[in-house]
Amino acid sequence: MTAGTIFQDTRTPLPVWFRAMWWLTTQKSGASALGLQRVLGLRSYETAWTWLHKLRRAMVRPGRDLLTGRVEVDESYLGGLEEGMRGRLTEKKALIVVAAQEDGMGIGRIRMRQIADASAESLEPFLVESIQPGSVVHTDGWSGYCGVTAKGYAHEVTIIRRSKRTASELLPRVHRVFSLLKRWLMGTHQGAVSHKHLDYYLDEFTFRFNRRRSKSRGKLFFRLAQQAVAVDPVTYDRIVHPTSETKPKTKPQPVGAT
Fold first, then answer.
1. 227 touches 63 (CB < 8 A)
2. Cβ(74)–Cβ(171) under 8 Å?
3. Inter-residue contact 111 to 98 (CB < 8 Å)
4. What dihedral angle (degrees, nearest 10) is formed by the CA atoms of 8, 10, 13, 17?
5. What are phi and psi of 25, to 5 degrees?
6. Angstrom distance (rounded) from CA 36 to CA 188
7. Residue 163's pLDDT is what?
8. Are 170 and 139 in contact (CB under 8 A)?
9. In what order do the strands lie in the sheet with 106-115?
C-alpha cells in the first residue's frame, strides 16, 4: 500500500506518521524537527528532520489553481546586509519572489519561490506558473517586469522612487507576506534554513497561509494525507544532496480531488 508514496520503505507504523501529520497541520506557528522528535518520542533528530522534509514535498497540489484578479508581485531577500552590493544583486542572501492576490484590502492566496536573480528570465517563468493570464499584475518599476504585458497580463506599475510613500505602503500585501515569512523562519526555525532546502519551507509557509482561515484542522490533515500518496518517494540522501531536479514528480490527481 505504501509503494510509490512518501511512506515507501518506512519501518515506522503508519499511525505514527499520521500523528506526525496531525501535529504538523495543527501547529499554527509551524513545526520544527526538534519539536516533532519530542512529541513523537523519536530516538533520532535526523528521522524527525527527514519526515518533515518528506511531508513538505506533499504540500504542493499538482494542477493547483492559478492566482487571479489583481495580484501584487515583488521580491525580497533573506539574510543579512552585504557590503558593496547594490540594487537587486546578492552573493550570499536568498532572493525570493512573492505573488499575493488582492482580496479587498486583505490578502488572498499567495505563491512564492526562490529565484537565482531578479532578471526577466527568472521572474517571468514564476509569473506564468503562478498567475492566470488576463489578470492584473501590480509591480514596481524594476526592468525585470518589462515583459509582463507580452505574457498576457495587464501590467500596473508603481514607481517607488517617485512616491513619498514607502514600498510597504505602495505594495502592502507582498511586504506583509515577506514580514510574516521572515518572522516564521526566525521564530519556528531560528533562521537555520539553508538555501538548498528553502523552496520546501516556502511550500510549507504557502500551504499554511492559504489555509489560514480554515476552521477545520482536519481538512488540512486530509489535504496533506491526500498529497502524501500523490508524491513520489524521496530518500534521505536525495534530500540532503539534491540534484538539479529539485522538485519531486507528482502523480495525476484522482477525479474530484481539490
1. no
2. yes
3. yes
4. -80
5. -85, -15
6. 12
7. 67
8. no
9. 106-115, 94-103, 70-78, 136-139, 154-157
**Residue closest to 67 by CA, chosen among 135, 145, 139:** 135
pLDDT band at 121 (very low <50, low <70, confident <90, very high): very high
Which cell numbers in the block locate residue 163?
512616491
User: pLDDT above 90 covers what percent of the chain?
Assistant: 60
CB 141 within 8 A of CB 134: no
Q: What is the pTM of this model?
A: 0.85
Taking only the tens place, the pLDDT of each residue in 21-65 is 999 998 887 888 999 999 999 989 999 999 999 999 999 887 889
**What is the structure's pLDDT at 21?**
95
Q: Give me the residue label for grid cell 511550500.
A: 203
Identify the bridge partners of residue 102 per DSSP, sorted by sequence position. Answer: 107
